[in-house]
């Protein structure tokens, strides 16, 4: 009995989130001892830490490790931490996204005098939580990971001291997020009450033969659990916090939330729906399909209504468009509820998310570049960007067309094709048609912005050369190269759409 | 010519414009700088499109004309295994003429723009966009994979949008938006249909799908797929009542844009019908053929009635707009031919495709030239009280316009005649199972359309080419006319750009067998399921 209580920990398997967390703590301590002039060093430590964590994925590539498993006869081999292919891909997305965010943070930290130590600590802590989440295979770990990813994000949003908009955004984000988490916890406890376990695979078993007296409880638990994750993906009706939060937060933080925040949400959603609640597919699949349709429509229509001369309209547009994109990400998850082969449909979401992460962060990087010269960051400020910085303008045009899904953004096009084909495959024809209309709406505002880039500069202010920085250039180049390479060889990410990930 | 050479030729035809587009954005290398950067990049455009034309002519020469039904110069490489997308290229008797037509028209546009660059931002972007557009259209006709077809179909949208929005005339922004939103909405719906076929049929390969003639697809699947794909293609073609983007786009586009839009882009729609809808989902095509034919017939009459209204005195008709509406009518003949589902009708449709590309391309060039000279293309302003008297002021230009007009109205002996005659002939005896009385009605409507077409084109000729003694009843020409109101006649570069179109119009009219001999075996095979 005694020996079975002692678990051996597979340190290699848990290396990616662990390294990130350890480096985060290291930065917090180092911040105390570094003189003011040496603070930029912290950023490079963070970047190195993220690269190391990314490299630690390499030994795990065979994708069959798991740890923190239940022992003994009753456990049935359920594990709390699994490093399968799904986990690895999402961890790659999270760490890569955090790396790009880090690169585009350097200049913002210097410009708006954010506290460097806190910033890097919070960013890495949140990334550690986000990297832990896809590996979690029980509800407790899942919620803990969700909170580890979210709590530092609240602080990051409100990091600009003395800026009332930043604080307001943080408060809004915090209150609505905490409510959602509370609801999720309530749901998880109902599910626990009905099935007597927290492990996802065992919940899946337990839900197939729930005591009839507890059936309503189980159903309520399933629905409530989903709420918290839907909130993170910013699905309608949990999307209202997005524009204000993005516009109020420091720009790199908005970029981070738009990619990693979403990744956290849909990863949790996938794990809960496909792994834990497959027997309730007839409940959550139609709900998610409707949610997807509403989300993409609400996001795209709101993005369409953004006026280009409004302050921070560029970030607002990206914020609303990210709500629209979240709708597309939900489509394959909904389709998974109808399909015979759920993991294939899930792969479409993963492939789409990888494309979206690269190009959306790229778009934010160019926005950060423009924001250095035009702090108001209106879309009108992008007028004539091609004349001032041709490469940045071409890169932004490429990112926007990838998001719109039109050539030359070939990867964007094919990522949308996989999502469409998941929907058509699952027989969700109406959802595919709704998405088709949304793609057209989205094209309008993406292309309108793209067209602005190539216009002749009107006023004197628009001819001022942009201030660049090496880290920003690196971030843009990294995202652009990723996008171009993927456009030439879409198979690199689309293969996830054709193999069993989970 | 060996297979490998043909393979390389076809691949180069598709890729070369793309490479050229990137090169156009880079600074010119030493030795190729020319007089100034603008001239250098325009020359670069002429060189690249010329090279593509030469390659496509070489491909046509190396094409095995004894077996036009066989896919030739095929390349088949796996590209995205996850989606089953393959880079599958090839040409047969159906796509080869369209490929050459595209290369020719783009070259002529580049040549024309070299001397007469439309006003707008730098020519650098103009040339790059023109080349991307060329690559997209060539790829549409060369690919044999449904997803690749969709990719190529979408590839033309962005360049065309910018060509209209940046180098266009009045109302260009609005027209460009209408163009891209309409076509995108259509093509996204088309994507759904293509995916349905791909998922149910198990492959995206057009040849494989055409070979079993949709036997793997259920009736419902075929009907839904044809509806979805048909909408996308019908917007592009354009089919009445989905045509409303077209007049604005044509009117606002610069000359090169109008020529390519009418000459090539519209053909992508009708080509899709022949290449995808008919062989892959024959049951679905059969179900919708009467509706397609009805819309086509209405389109023919509608297009010519609108033209007639535009052409009459005091109608405030714009010549470009008029030619654009005439395209709706002409493409109606093409769609009618396709809808008969008979080899005769489809051959006629393919012939009319090419003829329309040549003739309307020529007409848009001519109208562009008139607009440059007069500063307007408004028919009332042009002709004034007595007529613009182009015969007197610029006899060669007037003669060419009259030639284009009679070719367009389908005078026997010129290209416009055969296609429309065959399309009507096809609907005289439509495929088995289609209602003969209905198709006879459509044929009668189409016949009425040809009469109306003749009427408005002759009115145009009378008002523009003939007229008073040229003493200034019309507007004063913009380009400092001589004392008697003489205009600059056809200039050398215009002569160079237009002669090939005139010559081919006559050739195709006198020797239709050259073209029909290519398309007919391929059409028989498509309808017969690869046997």
From TrEMBL, chain A:
Its encoding gene is what? nuoN
State the organism named in the record: Streptomyces triculaminicus
What top-tier enzyme class does this entry carry? Answer: translocase
**Major subcellular location class:** membrane
Q: What's the protein name? A: NADH-quinone oxidoreductase subunit N
InterPro entries noted in UniProt = NADH-Q_OxRdtase_suN/2, ND/Mrp_TM
Gene Ontology cellular-component terms for this entry are: endomembrane system; plasma membrane
According to its UniProt entry, what is the function of this protein?
Answer: NDH-1 shuttles electrons from NADH, via FMN and iron-sulfur (Fe-S) centers, to quinones in the respiratory chain. The immediate electron acceptor for the enzyme in this species is believed to be a menaquinone. Couples the redox reaction to proton translocation (for every two electrons transferred, four hydrogen ions are translocated across the cytoplasmic membrane), and thus conserves the redox energy in a proton gradient.
Pfam families with a match to the protein in the record: Proton_antipo_M
Taking every annotated instance into account, which residue ranges of this chain make up the domain NADH:quinone oxidoreductase/Mrp antiporter transmembrane? Answer: 136-441
TrEMBL record, chain B:
- Cellular location(s): Endomembrane system; Membrane
What is the recorded membrane topology of this protein?
A: Multi-pass membrane protein
Recite the UniProt keywords alphabetically. Membrane, Oxidoreductase, Transmembrane, Transmembrane helix
Q: Which residues form the NADH:quinone oxidoreductase/Mrp antiporter transmembrane domain?
A: 145-429
List GO terms (cellular component aspect): endomembrane system; membrane
PANTHER family in the record: NADH-UBIQUINONE OXIDOREDUCTASE CHAIN 4 (PTHR43507:SF1)
Entry similarity comment: Belongs to the complex I subunit 4 family.
Please tell me where this protein is predominantly located.
membrane
Protein's recorded name: NADH-quinone oxidoreductase subunit M
The portions of this protein that span the membrane are 6-28, 40-63, 94-114, 126-144, 150-167, 179-199, 219-237, 249-268, 288-310, 322-342, 348-370, 397-418, 438-459
Write down the EC number.
1.6.5.-
- GO biological process assignments: ATP synthesis coupled electron transport; electron transport coupled proton transport
Which Gene Ontology terms cover its molecular function?
A: NADH dehydrogenase (ubiquinone) activity; NADH dehydrogenase activity; ubiquinone binding
């Amino acid at each position: 009995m005694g020996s079975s209580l002692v678990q051996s920990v597979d340190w290699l398997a848990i290396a990616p989130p662990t390294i990130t967390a350890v480096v985060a703590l290291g930065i917090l301590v180092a911040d105390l001892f570094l003189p003011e002039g040496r603070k930029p060093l912290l950023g490079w430590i963070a970047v190195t830490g993220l690269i190391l964590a990314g490299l630690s994925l390499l030994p795990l590539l065979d994708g069959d490790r798991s740890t923190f498993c239940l022992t003994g006869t009753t456990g049935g081999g359920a594990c709390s931490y699994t490093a399968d292919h799904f986990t690895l891909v999402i961890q790659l997305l999270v760490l890569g996204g955090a790396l790009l965010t880090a690169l585009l943070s350097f200049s913002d930290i210097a410009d708006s005098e954010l506290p460097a130590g806190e910033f890097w600590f919070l960013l890495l802590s949140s990334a550690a939580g986000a990297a832990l989440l896809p590996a979690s295979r029980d509800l407790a770990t899942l919620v803990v990971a969700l909170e580890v990813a979210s709590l530092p994000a609240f602080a990051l949003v409100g990091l600009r001291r003395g800026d009332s908009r930043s604080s307001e955004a943080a408060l809004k984000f915090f209150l609505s997020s905490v409510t959602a988490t509370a609801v999720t916890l309530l749901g998880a406890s109902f599910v626990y009450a009905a099935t007597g376990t927290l492990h996802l695979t065992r919940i899946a078993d337990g839900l197939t033969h729930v005591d009839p007296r507890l059936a309503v409880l189980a159903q309520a638990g399933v629905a409530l659990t989903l709420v918290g994750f839907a909130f993170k993906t910013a699905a309608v009706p949990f999307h209202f916090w997005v524009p204000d939060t993005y516009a109020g937060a420091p720009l790199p933080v908005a970029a981070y939330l738009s990619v990693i925040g979403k990744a956290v949400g849909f990863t949790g959603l996938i794990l809960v729906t496909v792994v834990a609640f497959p027997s309730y597919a007839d409940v959550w699949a139609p709900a998610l399909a409707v949610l997807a349709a509403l989300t993409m429509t609400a996001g795209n229509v709101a993005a369409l209504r953004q006026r280009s001369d409004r302050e921070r309209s560029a970030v607002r547009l990206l914020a609303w468009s990210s709500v629209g994109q979240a709708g597309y990400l939900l489509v394959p998850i909904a389709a998974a509820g109808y399909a015979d082969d759920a993991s294939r449909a899930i792969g479409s979401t993963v492939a789409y998310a990888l494309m979206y992460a690269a190009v959306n962060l790229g778009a934010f990087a160019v926005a950060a570049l423009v924001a250095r010269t035009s702090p108001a960051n209106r879309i009108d400020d992008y007028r004539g960007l091609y004349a001032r910085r041709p490469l940045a303008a071409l890169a932004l045009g490429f990112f926007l067309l990838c998001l719109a899904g039109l050539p030359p953004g070939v990867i964007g096009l094919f990522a949308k094709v996989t999502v469409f084909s998941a929907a058509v495959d699952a027989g969700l024809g109406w959802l595919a048609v709704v998405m088709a209309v949304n793609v057209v709406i989205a094209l309008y505002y993406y292309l309108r912005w793209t067209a602005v880039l190539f216009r002749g500069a009107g006023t004197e202010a628009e001819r001022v050369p942009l201030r660049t920085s090496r880290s920003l250039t690196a971030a843009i180049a990294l995202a652009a190269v990723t996008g171009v390479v993927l456009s030439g060889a879409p198979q690199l990410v689309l293969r996830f759409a054709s193999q069993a990930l989970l | 010519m060996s297979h490998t050479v043909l393979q390389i030729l076809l691949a180069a035809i598709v890729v070369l414009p793309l490479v050229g587009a990137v090169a156009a954005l880079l600074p010119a290398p030493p030795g190729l700088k020319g007089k100034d950067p603008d001239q250098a990049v325009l020359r670069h455009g002429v060189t690249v499109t010329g090279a593509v034309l030469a390659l496509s002519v070489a491909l046509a020469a190396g094409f095995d004309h004894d077996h036009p039904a066989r896919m030739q110069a095929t390349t088949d490489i796996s590209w995205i295994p996850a989606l089953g997308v393959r880079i599958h290229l090839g040409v047969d008797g159906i796509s080869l003429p369209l490929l050459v037509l595209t290369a020719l028209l783009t070259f002529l546009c580049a040549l024309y723009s070299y001397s007469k660059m439309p006003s707008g931002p730098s020519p650098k972007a103009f040339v790059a966009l023109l080349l991307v557009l060329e690559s997209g259209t060539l790829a549409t006709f060369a690919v044999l994979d449904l997803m690749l077809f969709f990719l190529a179909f979408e590839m033309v949208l962005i360049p065309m949008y910018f060509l209209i929005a940046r180098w266009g005339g009045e109302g260009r922004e609005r027209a460009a938006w209408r163009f891209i939103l309409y076509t995108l909405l259509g093509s996204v719906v088309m994507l759904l249909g293509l995916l349905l076929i791909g998922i149910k049929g198990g492959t995206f390969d057009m040849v494989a799908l055409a070979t079993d003639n949709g036997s793997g697809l259920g009736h419902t699947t075929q009907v839904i797929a044809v509806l979805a794909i048909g909408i996308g293609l019908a917007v592009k073609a354009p089919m009445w009542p989905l045509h409303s983007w077209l007049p604005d786009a044509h009117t606002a586009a610069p000359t090169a844009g109008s020529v390519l839009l009418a000459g090539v882009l519209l053909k992508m729609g009708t080509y899709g019908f022949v290449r995808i809808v008919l062989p892959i989902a024959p049951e679905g095509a059969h179900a919708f053929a009467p509706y397609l034919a009805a819309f086509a017939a209405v389109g023919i009459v509608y297009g010519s009635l609108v033209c007639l209204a535009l052409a009459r005195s005091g109608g405030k008709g714009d010549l470009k707009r008029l030619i654009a509406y005439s395209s709706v009518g002409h493409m109606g003949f093409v769609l009618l031919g396709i809808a008969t589902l008979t080899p005769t009708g489809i051959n006629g449709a393919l012939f009319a495709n090419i003829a329309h590309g040549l003739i309307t391309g020529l007409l848009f060039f001519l109208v562009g030239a008139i607009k440059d000279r007069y500063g307007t293309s408004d028919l009332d302003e042009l002709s004034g009280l007595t007529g613009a008297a182009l015969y007197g002021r610029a006899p060669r230009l007037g003669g060419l316009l009259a030639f284009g007009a009679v070719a367009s109205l389908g005078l026997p002996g010129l290209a416009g005649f055969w296609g429309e005659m065959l399309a009507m002939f096809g609907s005289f005896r439509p495929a088995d199972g289609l209602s003969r009385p209905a198709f006879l009605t459509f044929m009668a409507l189409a016949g009425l359309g040809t009469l109306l077409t003749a009427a408005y084109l002759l009115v145009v000729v009378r008002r523009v080419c003939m007229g008073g003694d040229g003493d200034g009843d019309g507007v004063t020409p913009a380009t400092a006319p001589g004392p008697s109101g003489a205009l600059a006649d056809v200039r050398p570069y215009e002569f160079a750009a237009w002669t090939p179109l005139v010559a081919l119009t006559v050739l195709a009219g006198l020797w239709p067998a050259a073209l029909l001999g290519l398309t007919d075996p391929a059409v028989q095979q498509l309808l017969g399921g690869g046997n």
